[in-house]
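FIELD: query
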Amino acid sequence: MNKILFFAALQEKAGKESIELDVSGKSVKEVKEFVALEYGLAKINESMTAINEEFAANDDVIQENDVIAFIPPVSGG
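FIELD: result
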């Protein structure tokens, strides 16, 4: 099982801070596609992804018990 964390606008849109899914063996891209459809997060592709607190690329593969975080771009002034 994997924990998927949402931050900022993604958290607001999903209505949850986190979800638990078994996505081991899937790529980051595949997880983004599933989550985008399941939770209506069309802008998830613009977000940075971290696996176990380290930034990850779309072709990185999720392992069992990994924690995945989706962090949208944030602007400020």
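FIELD: remark
The two ends are 39 Å apart (CA to CA).
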